């Protein structure tokens, strides 16, 4: 009961040692009128019963183990090598907390140091922190960091219209109350030229995403020109990026990005209905003191051996309080560990291979679907693993039919991008076999006939 | 014991992965888009496994031993929670699936919302916040929205006791508020006179942790709530120390208007080496419309979710809803679902009686240990504590510090308490035993402290150079901050 090791006799013995008669005496400071209220909760159950209950709840769901998933839009179904769970399932990792005592936390600390290094390798940046809550909050924190880098002198934030709708929403929630003005995304059809044209002397940063929310990979040369314009205006470039795409494409660090963030879930973390995920966050070393979140640094112990500690804590809330760079305390360490193990397993060649499979299969799927009667592929080459298809019937209805045929259909863009009409954002990763792509094209043709 | 970096094990050409062929005609790769180099390690599977298993062996977790890290509630994490959270029907659901294909998830979330409302005494709950600090930030944004809706834009101050966690002032400042510190009195309560002097028309809220970080239940809580409400402000509750209140008192009844729960502390979901956490927010009726969303709602239906699963008499369907005047989303998607499954499992298995037992045993353990530690170290406040207490890490006749005592505890096989916090206690050792520790463990810990105090007098160098039995010796934190090596140096070479 209650995972308590005490016997009743021991409880009595302990009460005597404390010098009170009953447990109730320990709660004398609680106002009597409100003490020991009744909790109306269901009766407790045994382990076997709770598992049966949860298995039933889980059975009400359609999940990627039984359906072919064509949904992406910020959360992705990629293959997770068995090694990842074998490592993150070790309770030496998952039952530890923030490594405040480095001598007994070298496992977590070194793994985080490796994670920071891998994120830098992926993004082409110089430093990365040990994670944020998710991609959306990482974008919001990047804006706050940019504001602090420019010493609070500028008020205007330009958001690309192709930044994930929820990243834009989360940023707005985060920055309410700060006086910053978030703009640039009002017209969802506005492109990079319009965004570039809107940069002025009050602009503190520009936030773009590649691949965009609609799957398009931005040309690195175009991004480089944008970065130059932004820097000439004295502002910063924030790039949100899908980490899997970095197995193949030029990283933002090579085109002049000042801060690179993104959703790290595709790196070895399951879909899990939206969380827990992790936000990765990288910047230039010169600005590291403005960065939020935990940082692991290398040092030596009293005998000169290499070791790792949390460092630059003077940026953080537990030291700096209201002057901290952010309020973040708990982060997503276990998810970051999963990401590190994933990247170690895939390595230089594996990540490139995953990215290429996604790229080729997505283009194949787009061409197969684009030639169906009534369907039109709105995405132009090159996209990464997602593309937009205009459908002959409402997407919601189409998805209902796809589900009957074993597919979790694509993201319904009529909710977020009504100007595209009855359009669907389809995602094809290495988890969608070629035979399923062919079957999808066949089913789409049949159900819309 | 050290382990080379995974990068240092890299040999060109090695790979630990088995991937399918694309199996389709290759689409051309656009010129100028493809990266030249990807400096990730190249290692075999067995090397990856051994590397990370070895690293795990250099870590201390609750599954290894006593972890009395004050304010972090490092209780045992039941294994059934891990089994529950890894059911494929949960793990494999995409957040954008239509509601009718994820009724199991939504039902679980709806029930958890109800449980948390009942446990906290609140009218509504949002599960969205990802951690405690995130919950605080959420609550402060709701407080802002509430005052602004009433035309009270001038309220720009947040009052925070000097014993509070650093996240409180940081969350307030992040939301654009000015922070005003309130003193603690000699008994560790909020100084009522100081509070009264600071309450006024510009105050938006008081952020209060109760029991506070000294482990004390504020003896004037009801007066505090009355003072705060009296000046038109709201009372924010930091639920970091909720473990002492389960079934003991409902924060919503005690005068708190908005409150965050730390599922990773109170409801026994593992801390993961620093996260993920989960910080749902509960509130009273008048603030419910401002909660971040979406939240889960339930409606009567003719058809039960999951065909062929009609075990209940009543049928409901579950759906998402954005509260009417919501502050918006505070994170992508809905919340830390995997953590929610664990908390749900915990609450279902304990029930009302079990939860109260948790609080009772947590407070029993803390008082029992306090009684023993008090024979060796001075207490910051010598009175009955709740779930934790703070000792002063000084030994008469020795100049060792709290840090030295902590490091020496490692040699005795224990994780050290929280050091140097709360800030108002010099040389603080903040000790939270939690309810899952046995009397034998508490006795052994107290005995170790006694021996360490003796060592402090007779062989202080032993403490100053501790730990001696950890995988590494004491680490040079000053050097780390000065040299600032944040990535493997070979990456940029």
What features would you describe in this structure?
The complex is a heterodimer of chains A (449) and B (493). Chain A folds into two domains: 68-79 and 350-447, Aspartate Aminotransferase, domain 1 (Alpha-Beta Complex); 82-342, Aspartate Aminotransferase, domain 2, CATH 3.40.640.10. In chain A, helix 7 (165-175) links the parallel strand 3 (156-159) and strand 4. Chain A has helices at 8-18, 47-59, 82-88, 91-94, 106-123, 135-149, 165-175, 192-197, 220-232, 317-320, 333-370, 395-404, 434-447, and strands at residues 68-69, 127-128, 156-159, 181-183, 203-210, 236-241, 259-263, 279-283, 296-300, 306-310, 376-377, 386-390, 407-408, 411-412, 423-427. The termini of chain A are far apart. Chain A has 13 helices and 15 strands. With 493 residues, chain B is an alpha/beta fold. Chain B folds into three domains: 1-58, no CATH class; 80-349, Type I PLP-dependent aspartate aminotransferase-like (Major domain) (Aspartate Aminotransferase, domain 2, 3-Layer(aba) Sandwich); 354-479, Aspartate Aminotransferase, domain 1 (Alpha-Beta Complex), CATH 3.90.1150. Chain B has helices at residues 45-56, 79-85, 88-91, 103-120, 132-149, 167-174, 192-198, 221-230, 263-266, 337-373, 402-411, 439-458, 460-464, 477-483; strands spanning 124-126, 157-161, 178-182, 203-209, 234-239, 258-261, 281-283, 295-300, 316-321, 389-392, 418-419, 428-431. In chain B, strands 1-7-6-5-4-2-3 form a seven-stranded mixed sheet, sandwiched between helices. The longest helix of chain B has 37 residues, at 337-373.
Features:
heterodimer, A: 449 residues, alpha/beta, Aspartate Aminotransferase, domain 1, Aspartate Aminotransferase, domain 2, 2 domains, seven-stranded mixed sheet, four-stranded antiparallel sheet, 13 helices, B: 493 residues, three-stranded antiparallel sheet, 14 helices, 12 strands
């Amino acid at each position: 009961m209650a995972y308590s090791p005490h016997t009743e006799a021991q409880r009595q013995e302990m009460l005597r040692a404390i010098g009170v008669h009953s447990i109730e005496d320990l709660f004398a400071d609680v106002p009597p009128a409100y003490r020991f209220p009744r909790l109306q909760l269901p009766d407790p159950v045994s382990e076997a019963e709770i598992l049966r209950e949860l298995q039933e709840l889980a059975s009400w769901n359609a999940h990627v183990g039984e359906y072919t998933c064509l949904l992406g839009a910020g959360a992705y179904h990629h293959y997770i090598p068995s090694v990842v769970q074998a490592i993150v399932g070790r309770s030496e990792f998952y039952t530890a907390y923030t490594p405040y005592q480095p001598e007994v936390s070298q496992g977590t600390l070194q793994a985080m140091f490796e994670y920071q290094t891998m994120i830098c390798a992926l993004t082409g940046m110089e430093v990365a922190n040990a994670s944020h809550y998710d991609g959306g909050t990482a974008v919001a924190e990047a804006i706050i960091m940019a504001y602090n880098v420019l010493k609070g002198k500028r008020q205007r934030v330009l958001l690309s219209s192709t930044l994930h709708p929820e990243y834009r929403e989360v940023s707005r929630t985060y920055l309410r109350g700060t006086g910053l003005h978030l703009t640039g995304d009002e017209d969802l059809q506005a492109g990079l030229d319009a965004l570039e044209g809107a940069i002025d002397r009050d602009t503190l940063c520009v936030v773009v995403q590649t691949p965009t929310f609609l799957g398009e990979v931005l040309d690195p040369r175009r991004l480089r020109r944008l970065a130059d314009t932004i820097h000439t205006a004295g502002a910063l470039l924030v790039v949100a990026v899908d980490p899997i795409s970095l197995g193949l494409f030029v990283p933002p660090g090579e085109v002049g990005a000042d801060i690179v963030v993104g959703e790290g879930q595709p790196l070895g973390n399951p879909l899990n209905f939206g969380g827990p995920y992790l936000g990765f966050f990288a910047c230039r070393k010169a600005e590291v003191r403005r960065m939020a979140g935990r940082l692991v640094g290398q040092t030596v112990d009293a005998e000169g051996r290499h070791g790792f500690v949390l460092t630059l804590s003077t940026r953080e809330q537990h030291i700096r309080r209201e002057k901290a760079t952010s309020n973040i305390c708990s982060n997503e360490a276990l998810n970051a560990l999963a990401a590190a193990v994933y990247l170690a397993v895939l390595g230089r060649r594996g990540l490139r291979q995953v990215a290429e499979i996604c790229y080729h299969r997505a283009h194949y799927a787009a061409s197969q679907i684009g030639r169906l009667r009534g369907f039109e592929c709105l995405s132009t080459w090159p996209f990464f693993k997602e593309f937009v298809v205009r459908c002959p019937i409402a997407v919601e209805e189409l998805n209902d039919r796809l589900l009957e045929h074993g597919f979790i259909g694509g993201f319904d863009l009529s909710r977020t991008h009504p100007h595209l009409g009855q359009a669907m954002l389809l995602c094809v990763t290495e988890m969608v076999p070629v035979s399923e792509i062919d079957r999808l094209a066949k089913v789409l043709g049949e159900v819309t006939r | 014991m050290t382990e080379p970096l995974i990068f240092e094990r890299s040999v060109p050409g090695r790979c630990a992965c088995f991937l399918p062929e694309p199996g389709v005609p290759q689409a051309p790769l656009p010129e100028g888009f493809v990266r030249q180099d990807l400096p990730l390690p190249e290692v075999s599977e067995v090397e990856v496994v051994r590397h990370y298993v070895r690293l795990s062996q250099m870590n201390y977790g609750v599954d290894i031993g006593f972890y009395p890290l004050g304010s972090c509630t490092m209780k045992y994490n039941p294994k059934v929670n891990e089994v529950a959270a890894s059911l494929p029907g949960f793990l494999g659901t995409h957040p954008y699936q239509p509601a009718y294909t994820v009724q199991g998830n939504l039902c679980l979330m709806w029930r958890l919302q109800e449980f948390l409302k009942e446990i906290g005494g609140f009218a509504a709950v949002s599960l969205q916040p990802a951690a405690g600090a995130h919950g605080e930030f959420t609550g402060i944004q709701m407080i802002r929205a509430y005052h602004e809706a009433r035309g009270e834009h001038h309220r720009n101050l947040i009052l925070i006791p000097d014993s509070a966690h650093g996240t409180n002032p940081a969350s307030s400042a992040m939301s654009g508020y000015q922070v005003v510190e309130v003193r603690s009195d000699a008994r560790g309560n909020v100084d009522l006179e100081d509070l009264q002097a600071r309450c006024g028309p510009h105050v938006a809220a008081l952020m209060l942790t109760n029991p506070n970080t000294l482990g004390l239940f504020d003896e004037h809580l009801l007066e505090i709530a009355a003072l705060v409400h009296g000046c038109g402000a709201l009372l924010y509750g930091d639920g970091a120390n909720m473990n002492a209140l389960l079934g003991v008192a409902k924060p919503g009844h005690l005068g708190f208007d908005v409150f965050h729960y730390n599922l990773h502390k109170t409801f026994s979901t593992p801390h993961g080496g620093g996260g993920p956490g989960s910080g749902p927010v509960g509130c009273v009726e008048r603030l419910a419309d401002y909660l971040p969303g979406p939240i889960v709602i339930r409606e009567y239906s003719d058809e039960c979710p999951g065909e062929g699963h009609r075990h209940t008499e009543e049928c409901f369907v579950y759906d998402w809803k954005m509260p009417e005047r919501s502050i918006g989303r505070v994170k992508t998607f809905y919340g830390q679902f995997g953590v929610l499954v664990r908390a749900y499992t915990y609450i279902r298995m304990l029930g009302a009686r079990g939860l109260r037992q948790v609080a009772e045993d947590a407070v029993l353990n803390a008082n029992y240990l306090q009684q023993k530690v008090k024979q060796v170290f001075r207490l910051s406040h010598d009175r009955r504590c709740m779930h934790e207490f703070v000792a002063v890490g000084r030994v008469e006749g020795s100049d060792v510090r709290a840090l030295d005592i902590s490091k020496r505890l490692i040699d005795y096989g224990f994780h050290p308490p929280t050091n140097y916090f709360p800030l108002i206690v010099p040389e603080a050792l903040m000790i939270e035993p939690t309810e899952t520790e046995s009397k034998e463990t508490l006795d052994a810990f107290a005995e170790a402290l006694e021996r360490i105090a003796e060592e402090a007098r007779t062989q202080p160098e032993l403490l100053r150079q501790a730990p001696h039995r950890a995988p590494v010796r004491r680490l040079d934190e000053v050097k780390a901050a000065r040299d600032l090596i944040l990535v493997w140096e070979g990456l940029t070479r």
